Amino acid sequence: MLQLTSRKRETYNVHLTYSLLWESALGIAAITNKKLINTLERPEKYWGEIKKSISDGLLEQLEFVEQNNTWKSLLQILHQREFKDLSEFIIYINGLQETELRFICLPFIGKDYQNYREKAAQGEKSSVEKLVQATANNSFFPTYIEFISQCDIVLLKEHLIQVMSNWYKEVLERDVAETSIILKNDYEAKKKMSNKLTPEELVQWATGGVTYAPEPSVHHVLLIPQYIYRPWNIEADMEETKVFYYPVANESITPNDKYTPNNFLVLKHKALGDEARLRIVKLLSEENRTLQEITDQLDIGKSTIHHHLKILRAAKLVEIVGSKYCLKKGAMELLFKELEVYLEK
């Protein structure tokens, strides 16, 4: 196709921030997510010891979170402004009017639904139903939307303040100095790297391989480091903004050891340290291919090829688009930059 314009493809701006308040809210989300908790980096024993050591009051609040997914409310509120500390966060919640708090807590699901979101916050049942229908495929949004739209707002305020305050004081403060340093280290590392990478490369590097292409209505990406939810990335949508709560890198945890490589860098090099997988990468650099096409080309058993592709996918070097395997966009170019940064430490 002949391109008659010289205008560059638009992309988004990347912003970075960090806070112990984000870490608190995500810790509350983690311990109340029974389906995911066994997949987190910290062992089941760690979470069990927390539950044994905290007060009955906090346990009761966490049960309420688990029933109603109010961890989402905490994150939504934290996106309203940069809070200096917990006391400022509490003052802000107490100062919100009923409709304001409901609107903030209700999820953003697109510009076309903002009017319904506003009316749902005012108690209009038909708008609540519209939001519920629009989020039917989400695992918890429908019931969460119904809860936020009809709950006692005084009790909701008390709950959000108590669960956040108690978690911060009973759990986070045990390692507050260490956690603060880790988050700051990662924030500064990503800030430094932002001068060397494009916005899309920075998102891919920070998240360990998430490819996020620009969307028409998204002008900003917000990167927030978190330690408690490693190794998972958590994504969220705000108006005009895509949010990634991404896992801090290994070198942010051990900053005094300049020889500690980024865990994603290690995964990628391990994935490439095999002749068959390098052959697959070469094939995919030429064009996207199906599993059968790769098998036929290399004359290796399909189950063996599938195993190699799983390793390449785990290292975020290969992905599936449609029915074909392909190299992740910019993955190889970014790998060279990551190695350069590591060697320059």
From TrEMBL:
Q: Which UniProt keywords apply?
A: DNA-binding, Transcription, Transcription regulation
Keyword Hydrolase annotated = no
Organism (species): Virgibacillus pantothenticus
Is the Transcription keyword given for this protein?
yes
Query: Pfam families under this entry?
Result: HTH_5
This protein is called: ArsR family transcriptional regulator
Which lineage do the record's taxonomy fields give for this organism? Answer: Bacteria, Bacillati, Bacillota, Bacilli, Bacillales
Task: Supply the InterPro entries for this chain.
Answer: ArsR-like_HTH, HTH_ArsR_DNA-bd_dom, HTH_MetalResp_TranReg, WH-like_DNA-bd_sf, WH_DNA-bd_sf
- List the GO molecular function terms: DNA binding; DNA-binding transcription factor activity
